[in-house]
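can u do me a favor
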């Protein structure tokens, strides 16, 4: 794989430590794409763990919370740190609000979350397991051998999209629309995915129209076990305004799609960068259970969640004013050397692999966490059965975003089947 990655990181480190502290802006998407953000977080955690960025053209001023325990304190205190109005550094455009329960406070949040949660209850997960396994197996069986291909598209996207289509009971042949809508929903202006904000909104309205058709179909039919039917028949969601329906759809599409997709790809990369761990896994496939949460920590598919302070408050000696934006950088907390031993290393048999922030904490803790873990476990069980190795053959192309931490492309080669 890549050479020169060491030099790039060395230069980034020099830059991170030479820069005046107050000029460090942790939301620079370019550094996420180049994977050079690490030394910046490392320095901020040590020297200014609750850090203020006074000026940012795109996001306005904001606080960065970078240590594990401080992030936990913010995430579990929704009375002070509100999600209302948005959970990413970027604001939702005023002319295109997308209400969704991840960006609401109680009591509305709690009522809507309650509607969605049963779909990922243990009973339903157990019922889904054989379906996911069969679909994963089929995808893997069709992969080319001895010929490079894009793992992101062929495996990660395909599998998570199939999963999502299953959750929504979405028309199978149209399922790639879900992938597109997920990408468009989180597209950065500079990402090149959409031409303009207008084009982005137009695509999301197509998404709304499509799902409205499905809603109308299901609201008049007996209740079923898919997410749309569950919403359509629930007291707290059946009267949602159209934009709120769209908002909650986007939440489920992005929540269930990008994050798991990037963890599936991230695992392949982590094992390639750590061949000793790959060998350990081959020697003992039972380690998949602890490897899965380690992949999710190592990858941290959502770099941050944002809150807004409702009252003046103090955090680690800093005075945060009512109305200030506060970013919880999970990606940094997951590398906090004071809480996690050897945090930059990928270790598939860690003693406490679930000690990570990737799913958040508090009332918004990820609804789909067990589903995501199950999908990853199944993928790896099925991969190990089939292939002695999956080799990453080129530096992956990463997403240009300080919110989604993931991959656009990852070329791999599978030299042989077992
Ligand atoms: C590795 C995969 C995943 C990661 C890393 C992830 C991460 C997160 C994070 C960080 C939050 C916000 C937590 C907070 O603010 O404290 C969240 C919330 C949420 N996630 Fe996930 N997620 C994943 C997979 C999924 C899946 C598969 C689904 C859906 C089926 C899902 C649905 C949701 C929903 C609905 C919420 C909103 C919960 C609320 O506001 O109460 N996620 N997720």
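np, heres the sequence
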């Amino acid at each position: 794989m890549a050479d020169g990655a060491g030099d790039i990181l060395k230069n980034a480190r020099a830059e991170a430590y030479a820069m005046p502290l107050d000029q460090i802006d942790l939301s620079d998407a370019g550094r996420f794409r180049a994977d050079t953000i690490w030394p910046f977080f490392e320095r901020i955690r040590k020297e200014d763990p609750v850090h203020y960025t006074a000026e940012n053209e795109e996001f306005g001023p904001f606080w960065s919370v970078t240590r594990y325990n401080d992030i936990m304190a913010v995430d579990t205190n929704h009375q002070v740190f509100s999600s209302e109005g948005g959970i990413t550094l970027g604001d939702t455009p005023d002319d295109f609000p997308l209400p969704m329960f991840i960006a609401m406070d109680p009591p509305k949040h709690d009522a809507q979350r309650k509607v969605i949660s049963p779909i990922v209850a243990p009973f339903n997960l157990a019922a889904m397991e054989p379906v996911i396994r069969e679909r994963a197996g089929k995808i893997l069986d069709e992969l080319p051998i001895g010929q490079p291909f894009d793992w992101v598209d062929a495996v990660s996207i395909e599998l998570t999209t199939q999963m999502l289509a299953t959750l929504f009971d979405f028309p199978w042949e149209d399922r790639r629309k879900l992938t597109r809508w997920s990408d468009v929903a989180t597209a950065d202006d500079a990402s090149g995915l959409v031409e303009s904000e207008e084009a982005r909104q137009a695509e999301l309205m197509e998404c709304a129209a499509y799902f409205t058709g499905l809603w109308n179909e299901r609201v008049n039919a007996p209740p079923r076990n898919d997410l749309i039917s569950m919403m359509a028949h629930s007291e707290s969601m059946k009267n949602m305004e159209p934009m709120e329906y769209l908002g909650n759809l986007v939440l489920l599409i992005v929540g269930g799609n990008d994050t798991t997709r990037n963890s599936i790809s991230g695992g392949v990369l982590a094992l390639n960068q750590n061949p000793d761990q790959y060998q350990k896994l081959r020697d003992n496939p039972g380690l998949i259970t602890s490897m899965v949460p380690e992949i999710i920590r190592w990858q941290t598919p959502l770099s941050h969640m944002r809150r807004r302070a409702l009252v003046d408050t103090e955090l680690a000696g800093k005075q945060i004013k009512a109305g200030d934006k506060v970013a919880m950088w999970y990606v940094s907390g997951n590398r906090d050397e004071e809480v996690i031993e050897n945090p930059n290393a990928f270790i598939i048999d860690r003693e406490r692999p679930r000690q990570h922030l990737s799913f958040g904490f508090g009332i918004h803790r990820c609804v789909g966490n067990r589903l995501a873990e199950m999908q990853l476990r199944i993928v790896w069980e099925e991969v190990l059965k089939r292939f002695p190795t999956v080799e990453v053959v080129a530096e992956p192309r990463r997403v240009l975003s300080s919110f989604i931490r993931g991959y656009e492309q990852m070329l791999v080669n599978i030299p042989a089947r077992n």
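The first strand starts at residue 50 and ends at 53. hope that helps!!
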